[in-house]
């Protein structure tokens, strides 16, 4: 998620679930080709499996970036056809490409031709005054014919004019049934549902109708929920019993990154929601927000913040998520 997630966030989330597939925020082809590549798409192998999400609409540039992503070691390349921001529309990528399924198909085919890892697409159910049933069916048919390995559907339309990107994540109504019908039409294609899934229990329930569920805001804003992913969705033990244990496990990473010149806040900002609604959660958050930004702040700041909050046992996390 642009402006929210980064490799520090992924490293931390990987301490909360070993099994979930983690996606990068969208990185444009221009940035990958001309930017500081190591900073933009570099990652720690401990984050795996990680998918690189690309934004673009030039098949040649996307193929080149897919190849670069595969060389970096990413587990999957994903193409963003869901972002509604104006900057993105000017660049002719993101959600506006819901209106150009043929071009998206060319992009998918070009990427598939050069990498052996899965190439997937994340889309909306339509844009503006498109009929979602028809728009999604047409779009899916095109990208399936081009060889997409999976389709992730944010189950609401994007309105490209009149709504801000933020409003476009809440205002257009969700239509999960349309995504379930798409799955029924493509039994062999992995279909992943996204949008408004607030708990891991809700994700599990959706798995009756689709192959996977992508969680965005809930995963970021309340990362403690991720401790339920491995037990509830994969039948595997949680990596840690409690959020506090996971936070302590982040300490060696923090020390390593600080030694490389990273600021503490760049890492701990991703922990602000770790103790959502637990006694002391506000003090924990406030301590991190005010102290981790200070020059020279070290891992001790996180240790202090952790003394201010009660822990949440994993079982409690399950109950609270229900
Ligand atoms: C701050 C922010 C940045 C986002 N950036 C991206 C992005 O880079 N790529 C993407 O596919 N979706 C992005 N999204 C959309 C989410 O991935 C997701 O599709 C949307 O929020 C609906 O799912 P949710 O209700 O689980 O959050 C972003 C959402 C937010 C809140």
Layout of secondary structure:
Blueprint: H1 7-16, E1 22-28, H2 29-34, H3 37-41, E2 50-55, H4 59-72, E3 76-81, H5 86-90, H6 101-114, E4 119-123, H7 132-145, E5 151-154, H8 176-185, E6 191-194, H9 200-206, E7 212-214, H10 217-221, H11 229-234, H12 243-249, H13 251-259, H14 264-268, H15 281-291, H16 299-307, H17 314-321
Parallel strand pairs: 1-2, 2-3, 3-4, 4-5, 5-6, 6-7
This protein binds flavin mononucleotide.
Supply database-style keywords.
single chain; 322 residues; alpha/beta; 7-stranded parallel beta sheet; 17 helices; 11% strand; globular; disordered C terminus; binds flavin mononucleotide
Give a structural overview.
The chain has 322 residues and is an alpha/beta fold. The protein has 17 helices and seven strands. The protein has helices spanning 7-16, 29-34, 37-41, 59-72, 86-90, 101-114, 132-145, 176-185, 200-206, 217-221, 229-234, 243-249, 251-259, 264-268, 281-291, 299-307, 314-321; strands spanning 22-28, 50-55, 76-81, 119-123, 151-154, 191-194, 212-214. A seven-stranded parallel beta sheet has the order 1-2-3-4-5-6-7. Helix 4 (59-72) runs parallel beside helix 6 (101-114), helix 6 packs parallel to helix 7 (132-145) and helix 15 runs antiparallel to helix 16. It is globular and about 55 Å long. It binds flavin mononucleotide. Flavin mononucleotide (FMN) is lined by residues 1-4, 25-26, 53, 80, 82-83, 122, 154, 169, 194-197, 215-218.
């Amino acid at each position: 998620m642009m402006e929210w997630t980064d490799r520090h966030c992924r490293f931390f989330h990987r301490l909360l679930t070993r099994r979930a597939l983690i996606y990068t925020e969208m990185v444009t082809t221009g940035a990958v080709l001309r930017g500081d590549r190591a900073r933009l798409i570099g990652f720690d192998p401990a984050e795996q499996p990680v998918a690189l999400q690309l934004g673009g609409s030039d098949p040649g540039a996307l193929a080149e970036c897919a190849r670069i992503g595969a060389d970096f070691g990413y587990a999957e390349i994903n193409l963003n056809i869901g972002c509604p921001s104006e900057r993105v529309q000017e660049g002719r990528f993101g959600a506006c490409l819901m209106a150009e399924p043929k071009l998206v198909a060319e992009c998918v085919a070009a990427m598939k031709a050069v990498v052996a890892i899965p190439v997937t697409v994340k889309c909306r159910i339509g844009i503006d005054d498109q009929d979602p049933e028809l728009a999604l069916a047409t779009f899916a048919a095109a990208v399936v014919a081009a060889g997409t390995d999976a389709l992730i559907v944010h189950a609401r339309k994007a309105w490209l004019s009149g709504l801000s990107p933020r409003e476009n994540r809440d205002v257009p109504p969700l239509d999960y049934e349309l995504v379930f019908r798409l799955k029924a039409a493509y039994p062999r294609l992995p279909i992943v549902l996204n949008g408004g899934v607030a708990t891991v229990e809700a994700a599990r329930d959706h798995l009756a109708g689709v192959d996977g569920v992508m969680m965005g805001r809930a995963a970021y804003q309340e990362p403690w929920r991720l401790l339920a992913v491995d037990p509830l969705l994969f039948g595997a033990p949680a990596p840690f019993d409690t959020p506090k244990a996971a936070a302590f496990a982040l300490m060696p990473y923090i020390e390593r990154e600080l030694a490389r010149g990273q600021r503490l806040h760049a890492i701990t900002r991703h922990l602000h929601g770790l103790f959502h609604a637990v006694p002391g959660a506000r003090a924990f958050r406030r301590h991190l927000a005010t102290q981790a930004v200070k020059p020279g702040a070290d891992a001790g700041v996180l240790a202090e913040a952790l003394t201010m909050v009660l822990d949440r046992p994993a079982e409690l996390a399950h109950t609270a998520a229900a």
